[in-house]
Amino acid sequence: MKKPLILISNDDGYSAKGIAELVSFVGHLGDVIVCAPEGARSGKSRAFSMGELTLRRLCTDTLPGCGNKIEWYACSGTPVDCVKIAYQELCPRCPDLVLGGINHGDNSSTNAHYSGTVGIAFEAALKGIPAIAFSLCDYDADANFSPVRPVVEQLCRNVIADGLPKYTCLNVNVPKCADGALPRGMKLCRMAHGGWHQEVETFAEGDGGSYQLKGFYCCDEPEAEDTDRWALDHGYVSVTPCTIDITCHAMLASVSSLLS
User: Fold this and answer.
1) Beta bridge partners of 31
2) Dihedral angle at the C-alpha atoms of 8, 13, 18, 23, nearest 10 degrees?
3) Distance in angstroms (rounded) separating the CA atoms of residues 68 and 155
4) Taking CA atoms, which of 164, 214, 233, 242 is between 20 and 30 Å from 189?
């Protein structure tokens, strides 16, 4: 029986603490191929590159005890570029699981649309491969990822064993916990409705002006207990099933008059 093959990428770059922690959490589950960007690619969502890309091998490790291999590569492109190149050029067969993360920061609600971490999971879902995006709601470069470990191990074991419906993935966000504390549990959630406000900070206006995208997030339904934002705000891990089908099926009948 073949060992599971796990492909991992991120949008914080191959040297980020989060991806190293993720590899350490799942290395005992199977062979691992890591293909991650050369540097930070946050906010790249599902973008891919049209120009020439570079790929370089970093190292290959063998885990003592189980003998599982971990291969590390760095790519000059986006997180989606990393998945595409690894899938065709590095993986000896179709991966059993693709993982994005662990992201340094929140990718719940609207943030999921912008996230390169979630983009990794969607790219895998487009290929029919089970995938999970993991994020910790802590932007510190030296964040404490220990509360994420049991979440990663449980979900990855179960998805490897049972799979996911085709063309779907999971977006998983873990709240920032006080030192030594663990989340209150996991909750299956829908994406909260909300958005970003005051998104542009102006330094100099006019032609050649200087601007930076910043702003703040505001949830439109903070009391809705079935959302990812409510779960995170109340100390739970949010697990949101996602699909690549962006069709609004509920509208198919209601807008049919537009075509007559």
Assistant:
1) 5
2) 30
3) 20
4) 214
Q: Copy the structure tokens of residue 136.
A: 């910790």
Per-residue pLDDT tens over the stretch 105-139:
999 999 999 999 999 999 999 999 999 999 999 99
Q: What residues contact residue 127 under an 8 Å CB cut-off, 6+ apart?
A: 87, 94
Question: In angstroms, what CA-CA distances link 167 with 124, 164, 174, 183?
Answer: 8, 8, 23, 29
Q: What is the pTM of this model?
A: 0.93
Rounded to whole angstroms, the Cα distance separating 159 from 149 reads 15
- H and E: helices and strands count for the chain: 7, 13
d(CA 75, CA 96): 22
DSSP lists the bridge partners of residue 75 as 37, 55
Instruction: Give me the torsion for CA of 137, 178, 181, 43, rounded to 10°.
Output: 10
Handedness of CA 141, 235, 102, 112 (dihedral sign): negative
Q: Give the three-state DSSP class for 44.
A: coil
Nearest Cα neighbor of 45 from 79, 7, 77 is 79
Per-residue pLDDT reduced to its tens digit, 26-84: 999 999 999 999 988 888 888 899 999 999 999 998 888 888 999 999 999 999 999 99
Amino acid present at 193 = H
Judge whether 119 and 44 are in contact, CB under 8 Å: yes
Unique residue bearing structure tokens 């991992």: 8
Contact status, residue 222 vs residue 194, Cβ threshold 8 Å: no
